[in-house]
Amino acid sequence: MKTYYYVHTGHRIGLDRFRRASAIFKALEGVEMTLLSSDYRIAQIAREYGIENAVGVDVVRNIPYIAENGDRLIFDSDEANPIMLEDMKNYFSTFLHLKSDDVAVDAVYFEKCEKSVAMTYFFGDDDYEKDLEKNLDFLKGFEPYLQLGFYYFLDYEEMLKEHFKNYFEFEEYEEMIKKTDILITASPQAVLESLATGGRPIYVKRADYSDDFDDLFVSLNVPIVKKFDEIELKTVIDSIETLKYENIAQLSNKTIEMIKDNFNL
């Protein structure tokens, strides 16, 4: 019996789930588990994130070509309909469907670090429609660093670099999270990682993203800015010294303990 972890990633949904999966793999160090990714490129670089075994499966329906009846699966995706989920429950001896807002953050982000960068903007790893470019006025007057994403087009990256005085390459993401004080981001996972470092994240609500994180962020006192409203963003930044962000350490532990309980680890 083998244990698999399927994660949904891609140029239209970004790397948030993969970053969470990486944190879970590290927290379960010593447990033999194989990552199944919907993106072959992620399977190829998974080792750089501490994941020894990874296979690209392209689409969720290909999972049975890798896993056998009776194996165990952690399913980190919202792709499947109720019928498919029921089939998976019957196919695997243990099946756990992670919710979008189950919190897991890599332990490296809980280490103390100096906040040497005042402000960074990270739209996300996915920007297929180039919405970052369409909403550059959103940041007018703030001059933050820019964090480049994984799925950005090469020519798009060069254009963005011309608009920002300072920027972080994709490979510098961890460094950026650790160094940045105020993180303006449309990535829910980046919000959580920033909180872990003691940063002060501001969540930008994209129209193409679900509401799954809204209640969680409200409970953590993370401000939410909708529709790239520059006036609302300015109001939040002007009052950020009064915000009392909550600690997320226990939330991250809860998700790991849930997995351990379900899989008898």
Largest sheet: 6 strands, parallel
Give the low-pLDDT segments.
none
Radius of gyration, CA atoms, in whole angstroms: 19 Å
**What portion of residues belong to β-strands?**
15-25%
Termini separation: 14 Å
Number of domains: 2
The order of strands across the largest sheet is: 8-7-6-9-10-11
Task: Give the class-level CATH name of the largest domain.
Answer: Alpha Beta
Mass-distribution shape:
globular
The CATH topology of the largest domain is: Rossmann fold
Overall SS class: alpha/beta
Mean pLDDT: 94
Helix content: 25-40%
Describe the structure concisely.
By secondary structure, the protein is α/β, with parallel strands linked by helices. The chain has two domains: 3-104 and 253-263, Rossmann fold; 107-242, Rossmann fold. Helices cover 34% and strands 18% of the residues.
SSE blueprint:
Elements: E1 3-7, H1 16-27, E2 34-37, H2 40-45, E3 54-56, E4 72-76, H3 82-91, E5 94-97, E6 117-122, H4 131-134, E7 145-147, H5 154-163, E8 167-168, H6 173-179, E9 180-185, H7 188-197, E10 200-205, H8 214-219, E11 224-226, H9 230-238, H10 249-263
Parallel strand pairs: 1-2, 1-4, 2-3, 4-5, 6-7, 6-9, 7-8, 9-10, 10-11
Describe the fold and architecture.
There is one protein chain. This protein is of the alpha/beta class and 265 residues long. It has 2 domains: 3-104 and 253-263, Rossmann fold (3-Layer(aba) Sandwich); 107-242, 3-Layer(aba) Sandwich (Rossmann fold). It is built from 10 helices and 11 strands. The strands form 2 sheets. The chain has a 6-stranded parallel β-sheet with strand order 8-7-6-9-10-11, sandwiched between helices. The longest helix is centred in the last third of the chain and has 15 residues, at 249-263. It starts with a strand and ends with a helix. The model has no long low-confidence stretch (mean pLDDT 94).
